[in-house]
Design brief:
Blueprint lengths: L2 H21 L3 E7 L2 E6 H57 L2 H14 L4 H13 L3 H14 L4 H13 L3 H14 L4 H13 L3 H14 L6 H21 L3 H14 L4 H13 L3 H15 L2 H13 L3 H14 L4 H13 L3 H13 L5 H13 L3 H12 L9 E3 L5 E2 L15 E3 L2 H6 L12 H7 L1
Antiparallel strand pairs: 1-2, 3-4, 3-5
Helix pairs in contact: 1-2, 2-3, 2-4, 3-4, 4-5, 5-6, 6-7, 7-8, 8-9, 9-10, 10-11, 11-12, 12-13, 13-14, 14-15, 14-16, 15-16, 16-17, 16-18, 17-18, 18-19
Amino acid sequence: MTIMSFLLLIILFLAFFIYFSGLNPQDVTIHFLPDHEITYSVAIIVVACVLLGLVLGYLAHMYGALIHHYKHWKEDREEKKNKDIQAIYREGVGRLLSGDIKKAHTLLQRALDRDPKRVDTRIAMANVLLQEGKGEEALEHLRQAKDVEPRSLEVLFKQAASFEEMHREEDAIQAFQEILAIENNNRKALRNLRDLHMKEGRWPEALDLQKRILKVGPGSNRLTEEKEKLLFLSYEVARLGIEAGKADEAIPELKDIMKQSGEFVPAYVSLGDALHSLKRDDEAVRIWQDGYKKLNKSVFLSRLEDYFMEIEDPAALLSYYRSTINERKDDLMLRLFYGKLCLRLEMVDEALEQLYAVENAGVDSQQLHLLLAEAHRRRDRIDESISEYQRALGVGDRIQLSYVCEACGARTREWRSRCSECGTWGKINLVDRQSIQDARLVELKPIHHGQREEWDQE
């Protein structure tokens, strides 16, 4: 506002005051205490009230302006502080990702010292501490982060992962259950919790979670995989039922599994086991025989051999082998097991006939060579028996010892500088190296005359 405008405003105000005083010449007495009063004209009182209002309004405006300025200053300061902390945090995370754990620890601690309530910094620090092998300290940081944001899924997932890494499966299960209490259909939590129950062999709980996963909808790219897993878990629950003496309840479930997947071998095997446990042996044998006919898996032949030898009726199994071989002359697996049974029954010539048929087909198997070695031994053909045992053990003119990767357990015939399975250098060593090196020779001391009698008396 210019000076002229201000003077004009004063002149107008004085003119209004004179005009108003002329219209209201009377005085007004105002009592503000019992013994105190003031008397002024109406015009002066009105003008005083107006001026007082203007002053109060101006003071209120100044107070608001100061408050606004203070808040703005405080926000600017907080924003600058947050930017500084964020910069330290980003540098700390960068150091963590580059493998400089010590520097990352220092930077993240600086960030936490300036703002202990930053959840992302607590999570990053937990990652650092886990890599340093300080699991309990990492969990403490995650607990403090959870205190700040009790419903943070990121914190809960990190807690669960940390518990798993520390082999505290029960605590991990509880963490995943907390996530599901917040978000009932969280797919990641459902799958992780299911996998933990599978790891612990809690098949009914894992099956219930798998049903929830399919109900939520695993996504089109995982639907087939999750349906297969439902089948496998259903089988494990049925198998547990058989072990618990509830074979009659498991049988319908196993049959349903076989309808859904006609090539799921364990369902056939366990269905036969369930029928056998209920003394429905004819049905069990038929299931195992049909299973082999359809799926060509040796486990069915093992089950049949165990059963018929258990009831001391090998003739029935021999008859089954002979009739089936007539139908399937090229079935080498059947001939191998037939030869094995003949050898078990001391029918050595018939065993050799079947085993030679397998060998002449070009099969070079350790199991085959062991059976041939045993057959030759029973015919007192020592040289042939030794030769077959050597082939079974992989021993030739030059005796070679096996090597193993001590990092992943992969075996190899030759020493290598680097494991072809896990890629680790310098871990290929002789099988059983540690037990050989840790053993100590026992010193044999001569027993002098009379010592044995002294020991006997003791």
